[in-house]
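Input:
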Amino acid sequence: MFLALKELKHAKLRYTLMSIIIVLIAWLVFILSGLGNGLSTLSAAAVKNLDADYVVYEDGAKATFSKSLISNSLVDDIKKNKDVKDATPFGAAMAAISHGKKDEEKTDIAVLGIKPGEFIEPKVVEGKQLDPDIKNGVLANDTLKDKGYKIGDEVQVDSSTIKLKIVGFVEGETYNHLPVLFSNVDQWRDYAFAAPGSNNGIKDVVNAIVLQAPDLDPAQLDKSINGIETVTKSAAINGMPGYMEENGTILMMLAFLIVISAFVIAVFFYVITIQKTQQFGVMKAIGASNGFITKAIVSQVFVLSVVGILIGVALTYLTALVFPENMPFNLDAKLVVLYGIALLVISLLSSLISVRQIAKIDPLTALGRVE
Amino acid sequence: MNGLQIKNVTKNYKEGNSSITALNNASMEVKPGEFVAIVGPSGSGKSTLLSVVGALLKPTSGTVSINDKEITKLSSKALSKFRLQEIGFILQSSNLIPYLNVTDQLILVKKMTGKVTKEDQEKAKKLLTELGLGGKLKKYPNELSGGERQRVAIARSLMNDSNVILADEPTASLDSKRAHEVVKLIADEVKKRNKAAIMVTHDERMLTYCDKVYKMEDGILTLQK
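Output:
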């Protein structure tokens, strides 16, 4: 640390430039991670929030809700499996709602059908939970408040005669980038399968059945009941249309950024080390071990990276304040710490290239001429 | 036996298919308190000799012992520790660390061995003051004159109380007045602190300060004075 800090203080410009690069990279990494997190929340929060372990689809649906139709009667069959603690139906449909006034702007929403009182029903932050006796009651995501919806409103569902009544608000529930209305599964079915025959002739049709079953063997369940496929909740999230593509793009950018930062830091310190060959030679001649010089370089990289990453974090939180409200930006403190540590580890690893160079320096160079 | 003994040291370099003998059966002895000079034209092998004595280079054959310890037998890891404890190097003036102030140049040597104590700080200050740098303790090398830089290098070589001082062309970039000052200072410190010292130089004017003068020519070492 002695050498590292003295040198940082002495060559301020050089190391300031270097830390600016680290700051910029860290900043971009954190913003991207916030954006990725925001997008994935937006596209699948309602599924992520399900307090469940497995999801049962129609065989061949490839873990996509919109491709799956199964009968609600399977719930009882599934519950017979000894590993299944609880099971409940789940349905999803896209719709648009309005107050039913003329020339009013409609709002896109997702209607998710659930059974009132079951384990996947989210807790309201305002109003009442779903009631099996109020068939058209719905729990709305609280972002709909901004569009002028409030508790007690009877909203008109577009291209149907159905009116839904908002009984409560829930928080952070989005599906396919849309705010969610949790509805009684029977009401949902009336809307989603209004057209005759659209239920493929299945009685009491739903899209999927959600299970609480931590110790379940999904293959065994699939074998015992005809025509279903059981996947984990995370596979169900990945099966959401566009989810993998969105996340994949952002992850790829993050990976590239981290690799770039590794190379930038590695090259910078490599060049500086080569520049200081003579100096290190002198130190070795006086008696410095490789370890002593290595510590100096690695602690320099450590100090620069930590400072750079911390400034990057600060800038990220500042920019988050400036971002428009409806931008899907969601900084997860856990992710920030994770990527921060990843950047730090990568930069420390990349300094090892310079360390290899130090071991090669011959103390004889200190004598100025090798005969 | 204290001091420095070099016995029948030979160093060969391979250059392509032929072999060059940089040192040919060189022997010498430096007692504590003795200041020895090695002169000779460039390429004569004097730097090679200094490198071998300074534990920077292994000889092809022969032995070098300092205070009865044969350094030619040490591993390269043990050598860097040995250099740190037993050998004080005075290198050419460019060989101070540019981003350390005068005091820290000396503290660095102590850092290499581990912890730096209050006494070490005091010792560095005392050494520098004795060498006439009392007013420049916080200066950086680029703020010093060539002579002052060389005095810092001398102080640095004394910092670890090593038994052997090796000086490599200490007057290379100095005018003659400063060169005399610097070499006289080395001679004084060597006497005062009872060190065994070798100076490699091509500056014949500096030899008056030395107890013995060896001449090196084509790898062969001969006593002149």
